Amino acid sequence: MNAPLSSPQHQNTAIGRPVPRKEDFRLLQGQGRYSDDISLPGQAYAAMVRSPYAHGVIRGIDSETAKAMPGVLGVYTAADMRDYGGLNFQLKIPNRDGSPTRTTPRFALAADKVRFLGDPVAFVVAETAMQAREAAEAVEIDIDSLPAIADMKAALEPDAPEIYAEVPGNLALDFHSGDSAAVEAAFANAAHVARLDIVNSRIVVNAMEPRAALGEYDAASGRWTLHAGSQGAFPMRNQLAKDVLKVPNDKVRVLTGNVGGSFGMKAPIYPEYVCILHAAKALGRPVKWTADRSESFLSDQHGRDHLVTGALALDAEGKFLAVRFDLLANQGAYLSTVGPLMHTMNIVKNGVSLYRFPLIEVNSRCVLTNTAPIGPYRGAGRPEANYYVERLIDTAAREMGLDRAELRRRNHIRPSEMPYLAASGMSYDSGDFTAVLDRVLALADWQGFPARKAESQARGKLRGIGIGDYLEVTAPPAQEMGGLRFEPNGDVTIITGTLDYGQGHATPFAQVLSDRLGVPFERIQLLQGDSDELIAGGGTGGSKSLMASGAAIIEAADKVVEKGRELAASVLEAASVDIEFAEGRFTIAGTDRSVSLMDLAGQLEPGALDVQHIFDNAPSAFPNGCHVAEVEIDPDTGVVEVVKYTAVNDFGTIVNPMMVEGQVHGGVAQGIGQALMENTVYDADGQLLTGSYMDYAMPRADNMPDMVQDYHAVPATTNPLGAKGCGEAGCAGSLPSVMNAVVDALSVYGITHIDMPATPHRVWQAIRQAGG
């Protein structure tokens, strides 16, 4: 990488500096442009008609009353949508016998059966949003209710209601990975086996901005435009064109502006988007749809939802011999775009974490139920896998009388063993896991915990401390665009196919380009959310954006230098071989004759220095770290409070430490939310009991402790920046550290496990049942 420029201005924005986010001033003034902010002349409004039953056969839909209501422009059912393709499961994950995942396509509107509460069966378009909602309520749906099944265990019983004839026994996938015979032998020969049944509770994603979209159709060109929140305009455009609208890619444009959070949930195409595009074509005018919060609870993809039996085999000295996870994974009523990925391959990749496990076996039965579909949620299997193994390690340490930290140290992969081929098949390139653990224990004052515990006890509180060691396998960056465009006004625009849905990409991307080319930081702009501007792009997900777009920007910058050297040679009247580039200037070697890149761009024809580059695939990276949480519990009420939190992370090269700290802070907040309060509950008939903030608890500022964060950076060797990704690490470290701390606090009553969420009622109940 080029040496940092020497000017004070550049030093203030160089890689490694905590540069404030470029967009914050505009956003804090209310000048952001989110999906619901977009309006077009003549637009109409859509409202969805949703099933009030979790399971049933559609006998008829009577829309006559609705059609006659004021302002109504149309009422549409599945019969009107039959020319469109399904919202298809995109991956190939085989059953243990090699057969493909059992699935049926999901279409925009249910035609024969409804399969979960809120399943869309029709929609209304009217002149105003209120008219559309009132008319939607007037649509009468004749549904023969069928027995529903919301419990994934019960869904596998022989007499369970069948959700699809094409999916016998409601089992979409019976996944297996690992050498069963070798794992069984390791367990048979083990000196000790720790076993644990673990619930990974279902989460409603609850992004700050509910989903919204606006569809257009241009009859003259036969072209659709969708304005919607997404995690990548390019992949959404491609799937929408190929699978749903069945048209060439150039007939579809996806535009995404500011996005108020996603965490995986806004990545796929939803039924509502297809509906408004259809109506826009049918009516010859734009059509808009916006969900309210109650509709989001029903219709957004949910996250997590596993039942796990974990087992850890150890020898007499505590050396890990094998780990096995047997999962039941709820898929909901339809497979999402990535379907069972979180419950299968991501458990395999992340379940061995940063330890020298010789063997891992994963058995996952992925079950369909009459509940909302499950999709990725911050980490998408990575935090869960780390949670399972960390709970097993604490259990083994207690049962064998070993120190929790020492047991982890004994089994850490050592720096001298890098590159390390893990039992998952992943090759770790870098990391110093014991140094990270030792650093966080020192910062957290692990040795001083007994005194803090005694002080809490004197106030009538229980105090516990927990470790959350973790390693994540990031998503492998697909091909990614690195476009650089020199604008007439002197700005330089980065064009890339990742997408900022709250992370703040504009600032670190500008830091990378400024470092590479010497372009003034304040003149760098970012364009991400327009599929027409992109020639490649994998979107944002799996903590890969800086690795993908950062590498693409670096390679594109190098191409600008190549172009510029030839052009500068002409301007400076020298041979191109004599032109050097450093600190933003082209110079004739051995002389003081030079021209800056920006001045050169101003002298050239528009586009002369522009680059459209595609960065090819890079392997996954392995962000890792260790978090230590301390909790206090009031034994009289069961209330759990996180009172101290320390995190040391290895994210490789850190471009902007302030923004990384914010990412960790947000992930920890979501982890604490799942650990202590968030829980999605359906009744036996598939009715959602936690359908609003009256029934679903979300973490707030007063649930968060002050956090101490530090870094032990070992740069990755597999991408030009040396970056490892940080977006999901907060969840990966907080789930195990908080829950291990809760169990540690409750251990005075002989309690050895409690499931998430550790709500006051659940904790109080556990204490009472233990005789406390």
TrEMBL record:
Domain of life, source organism: Bacteria
UniProt entry keywords in alphabetical sequence: Molybdenum, Oxidoreductase
GO molecular function, one term: iron ion binding
Aldehyde oxidase/xanthine dehydrogenase a/b hammerhead domain segment(s): 29-147
Biased composition (Polar residues): 1-14
Positions of the UniProt region annotated as Disordered: 1-22
Alphabetized PANTHER family for the sequence: ALDEHYDE OXIDASE 1-RELATED (PTHR11908:SF132), XANTHINE DEHYDROGENASE (PTHR11908)
Designated name of the protein: Carbon monoxide dehydrogenase
Organism: Oceanibaculum pacificum
